[in-house]
Amino acid sequence: MSQPPRNVSFRASKESKCPVCGELHRKEELLSGGGRLIAGKLGEDLRRHYEESKKWGKIEPLVYPVQVCHKCLYASYSKDFEAISKLEVEAIRASIPHRQKLVKTVFGDLDFSKERDSLTGAASYLLAVDCYHLRAPDAAPTPKKAVSALRAAWLLDDLFIEFPQRPYDKARDFYYMEATRNYAKTLEIMTSGEEPIEASLGMLGPSLDHPWAFDGIIYLNALLTYKFYSQLATDRPEQKKLLENAKRFLSKLYGSGKSSKSKPSVIVDLAKDLYDGIGKLIEEQFADA
């Protein structure tokens, strides 16, 4: 696996101390400007694709956001890295062997003290999902698990395309389902208020160029339900119910978009197409359910 080209990233001037094991490290950050990132198309899954630069080569900015301790593999977004309780520290410390086995099983030997590449970038999101499972509600872990799992699936798919002989597709499919379940749970939390989602919306993307906030949560819940409804439920009436609920939430996004000039047309157009697609699926496949 080749390393990113030089002058693509830098190390933070201030050292971070891992609250789990005490190890010191400097977080790696992506440099901006200089034509390093050339924005390409936005996918239906709200992933921003980037074109290859002649000077800098292929850069995937998603490999950098998650902060990982290279010793104990504790991982989180930087805002949450040191804001952690003693109980959370104990749980994450006890799960070190599990994280080590997870990385070893999916990727082999990785070194997070070196510059990020596509392997450590993808692995960072697997570790983030694992660690946010052990975080308290005040860290808003559910939406962070949702976006981390989705980004993991994206990067694992990239790896499978590059290395089809490796079973990255199995890990990709697992994390797509993790994303699907956690986006559905996030939608519930938006109503119940049991986690402070609002404070984290700016970091949830799911891509890095635009925080789609609540609109993104509603849209991605519907998209993932549409794609994976058969895995979410085996009972046909339950599958139909899941699709109808996704369609109902989506109609609110589409309806508010039509009446609001401030809402980007791209999300409204995507919501309209998806709304029609789910409606057609229900009509064709679940008329008797």
Query: What's the average pLDDT?
Result: 92
Q: What would you call the structural class?
A: mainly alpha
User: Quick one: overall form?
Assistant: globular
What is the total tally of β strands?
A: 8
| Strand percent estimate | 5-15%
Strand count, sense and barrel status of the largest sheet are: 2 strands, antiparallel
How many DSSP H or I helices?
9
How big is the Rg?
20 Å
Kindly state the percentage of residues in helix.
40-55%
Low-pLDDT residue spans: 1-5
Distance between the termini: 49 Å
Succession of helices and strands: EEEEEEEEHHHHHHHHH
How many domains make up the coordinates?
2
Strand order of the largest sheet: 1-4
Task: Describe what this molecule looks like in 3D.
- This protein has 289 residues and is mainly alpha-helical.
- The protein folds into two domains: 9-211, no CATH class; 215-289.
- Helix content is 53%, strand content 9%.
- It contains nine helices and eight strands.
- It has helices spanning 78-81, 86-94, 96-107, 118-132, 141-162, 168-192, 213-232, 236-259, 265-285, and strands spanning 9-11, 16-17, 24-25, 28-30, 38-42, 48-51, 66-68, 75-77.
- Strands 1-4 form a two-stranded antiparallel ribbon.
- A hairpin with a 5-residue loop joins strand 5 and strand 6.
- Helix 3 runs antiparallel to helix 4 and helix 7 (213-232) packs antiparallel against helix 8.
- Mean pLDDT is 92; it is low at 1-5.
